[in-house]
Structure formats: structure tokens, C-alpha cells
Design brief:
disordered C terminus; 24% helix
């Protein structure tokens, strides 16, 4: 049938890039389901491509789509059943000329955008800047190098737009039922265990008060980047290999979580004497070989560990009447230490205009999680406002005012009694170094 879903991203004024390790160094800022008037109804006699082609508001996006026959054929297929997130012209940046440049200099700058064949290092990996580079092709004289660049841009556009496509037809009412969805994009580098990359349809903007600068610095400081990042390295004969974590889930404490630790503990952790304790604490916040979203679980070591929204069992003593709920015990990078996760999805019963509203209660070791379900290229990121205690201890009233009127996490008040010794303990053999 010809009715597809065309979902313009009008509220955020931006396009999706290939997901990276979104917490290192920045978060994605694309939340989709925020304004309900943006879902464009399609007539039954036009395909997605035809609608975009006929609407001047999407002329810049169409220019990029036309470089990929594969994407064009899919969007112009009357039998396809997909959801496409289309970016209007207003959501794509414009090139800002340098002050003082004359027209001749502009032509020289544009011409320099046509590198020799085999050199694709300057091609962007986000749709907005890709469109700019496609538009700049108009200023480059015809040549074999230009043809090569068009082909290279087309290949990357195909991948980027695959991340804008859901392989099922969902209207606005259906789209908000989950937090994340599998896209048409699967990477062949081993990341995500060759599972389709997921797209968050909730707002994943992290408020300024929930910065995570401290944990990113700490991860680099103790040499844990390889446990959470995944990057490529060039080899001989143009061979590319990848190193790092193919799949992982990270519970990232905010900088405020570190600030609420007792002052002496903060000084200890970020001193040479506390480096081992800091590393072990951070390992406790990383779940390797598993991607966890509130509505999706994939365990790279067991292909049966999936959570299905409609089949998950409700765990005992959870308040309300959730649509689905589950408990998980997740082994962390810190050997012999696990996290306890509880997830419950609810439908808002208060009558409100527009589609139904849903919300999720996500708890790890008794602490609320949020923002959550932030996709990364090799897994998922969830933000927490407390540093997790590896002993599993949690006090309900976990903050109090310190002597300098600072908020202090009382879970860590007794750290001097156990943390230095625990940091030196060999978890495998139960001995001390």
C-alpha cells in the first residue's frame, strides 16, 4: 500500500548523525516526540519520495537523497511499509562564508572540496553537514574526482538515512508507546553485536545541571576508555581494524554525583593513591557485552536475552498497574559485582489532548535513572545522579547537608572504613596486594 509515515523533525531543527559514544564528549540533542502537529498525513496515491519531491520545504534533503539510488528506491516504493524521519530545510545548517572573502576565493575553497580519489577523510558523518557538502558539489567543475566524491557522499548518505528509517509503519500514537526503535542501519564493524542501531524517540537532551564531565575525565584518567569506547585504527594496505568495546551499557554518574561525595573522598579518588579505587568504582558502572534500553535488551553472550514489551513479566510489589515491568541482574565489568535493574512502563491515565502519554520508571540499585535510553554506536547510556555503591548499600535518605552547607551523599560517609582496603583487594582470589 502507498500510505507511509512521514515524520518531519521540526521541533529540534536538526538531523540525526550516526550515533557515537554519546557521552564522550557530548550528548545527542535530538528528541523526536515533542510536538504532535508534525506528523504529516500522506495521501494513498503518493510515496514518501514523491511527497518530499513536491514539497519545497524538503528540497535540500531531496538533493542528498538523490545521490543514493538505494534510498530513493526505498522511499519511492509504493509497497514499502516504513517510517521516515524527514528533516526540513530549516533543520539543515547553511554555509557561513568567511568575512573578507571575495567570490574568487569562494570558488577556490569549493574546488578544494574535491579531494583526490581514495581520500574521503573530510566527508561529514551527520546529515546536516552532508547536505552542505552535497550542495557544494554544484560549485565544483565536472571531473572524475567529482564523480568519485559524489559516490562517496552517496554511500555515507545511504547509511545516515538508514538511521532515519524504521522498518515498520508507525503513526504518532504508536510511536510513543516505546522509548527506542530499531532502525534500518546495521554496522558491519561488529559494534552492537551486528544488531540494528536504535533510535530514541524521546527527548534525550541532558539538562545543563546534569553534566557528566567528571566521569568522562575519570574514565580517561584511569585508562578505561577501551571498556566503553569503540574506534577504528588504520592498518597496512588500507586495512581498517576496530578496537575497544563492541557492545556495552554505561550508567554515567553526573558531575553533581561526584560533588556530593564527602570532600576527603573526592580528593582521595582523584589522587594517585585513589586511582585503583576510582577505576574499580567506574568498572561497577559498566555492563559489558550487553545493550540495555528500557524497552530492549540484547546480551551478546546469549541470544535469548531479549525483553519483549508484551511478554515481559511484572515483578512483585511494583506500584501501579504497569503495561510491562521486569527485573534484571546485570554483571558489571567489576568482577563478582552486579547491578539490580527494575523497569516499569506506564500509560498516563489523566485525559490530555493529543496522543496517549507514556512514562517509564527506571531504577538501578534503588536509585532513579534519567535521562535514560540514550543510544550510542556500541550500546546505551543512562544518566544517574548518584555514584553507585559496590557494596549494594542504599539509604533512602541518601543526602544531607554537610558542614559547609553542601549536599552530601550519606551512602559514602563511612568510606574510610572500607574503600581503601576494598580497592586493594584482589576480587578473584580474595587477597590483598
Amino acid at each position: 500500500m502507498r500510505i507511509h509515515n512521514l515524520v518531519p523533525i521540526l521541533c529540534v531543527g536538526g538531523a540525526y548523525a550516526l550515533p557515537t559514544l554519546s557521552w564522550l564528549p557530548q550528548f545527542p540533542v535530538e528528541g523526536l516526540v515533542r510536538c504532535w502537529g508534525i506528523f504529516a498525513p500522506l495521501s494513498e496515491d503518493r510515496t514518501i519520495y514523491q511527497v518530499l519531491k513536491d514539497d519545497e520545504r524538503y528540497s535540500r534533503l531531496v538533493k542528498a537523497i538523490d545521490l543514493s539510488d538505494e534510498v530513493t528506491d526505498l522511499l519511492d516504493d509504493p509497497a514499502a511499509s516504513i517510517t521516515f524521519f524527514a528533516v526540513p530545510n530549516t533543520g539543515i545548517p547553511h554555509r557561513q562564508p568567511s568575512h573578507g572573502d571575495d567570490d574568487d576565493n569562494h570558488q577556490l575553497d569549493f574546488a578544494s572540496l574535491a579531494p583526490k580519489r581514495g581520500d574521503e577523510r573530510d566527508i561529514a558523518y551527520d546529515l546536516g553537514h552532508l547536505v552542505l557538502q552535497v550542495e557544494e558539489l554544484d560549485n565544483i567543475p565536472e571531473s572524475r574526482d567529482k564523480d568519485h566524491r559524489k559516490g562517496a557522499l552517496g554511500r555515507i548518505i545511504r547509511a545516515i538515512l538508514a538511521y532515519h528509517i524504521l522498518p515498520e509503519k508507525l503513526d504518532s500514537t504508536a510511536l510513543v508507546q516505546n522509548s527506542t526503535y530499531a532502525t534500518n542501519l546495521t554496522l558491519n564493524d561488529g559494534s552492537m553485536d551486528y544488531q540494528p542501531l536504535r533510535l530514541s524517540v524521546q527527548s534525550t537532551i541532558v539538562p545543563p545541571r546534569l553534566r557528566i564531565n567528571t566521569v568522562t575525565s575519570a574514565i580517561q584518567h584511569v585508562g578505561l576508555t577501551g571498556a566503553v569506547d569503540y574506534w577504528r585504527i588504520p592498518g597496512e594496505d588500507c586495512h581498517i581494524s576496530f578496537v575497544g568495546a563492541e557492545i556495552a551499557t554505561v550508567f554515567a554518574p553526573t558531575s553533581g554525583a561526584f560533588q556530593r561525595l564527602p570532600k576527603k573522598l573526592r580528593l582521595f579518588l582523584f589522587s594517585p593513591f585513589g586511582a585503583k579505587a576510582l577505576r574499580k568504582l567506574l568498572e561497577y558502572h559498566v555492563v559489558p557485552q550487553l545493550v540495555l534500553h528500557t524497552d530492549y535488551v540484547h546480551n551478546a553472550t546469549s541470544y535469548t536475552a531479549f525483553i519483549n514489551d508484551r511478554e515481559a513479566g511484572v515483578f512483585v510489589d511494583y506500584p501501579g498497574n504497569p503495561l510491562y515491568a521486569y527485573n534484571l541482574t546485570l554483571p558489571t565489568l567489576l568482577e563478582n559485582h552486579s547491578l539490580n535493574v527494575q523497569v516499569a512502563r506506564y500509560k498516563v491515565k489523566i485525559p490530555l489532548p493529543g496522543p496517549s502519554r507514556y512514562f517509564t520508571r527506571f531504577v538501578v540499585n534503588g536509585h532513579d535513572v534519567g535521562p535514560y535510553d540514550i543510544p550510542a554506536r556500541n550500546g546505551a547510556l543512562h544518566v544517574i545522579t548518584n555514584l553507585l555503591d559496590p557494596r549494594g548499600h542504599h539509604k533512602e535518605d541518601h543526602k544531607h547537608r554537610g558542614p559547609e552547607h553542601e549536599s552530601v551523599d550519606v551512602d559514602w560517609e563511612d568510606w574510610e572504613e572500607w574503600l581503601p582496603q576494598w580497592a586493594m583487594q584482589d576480587e578473584v582470589h580474595g587477597t590483598y596486594e
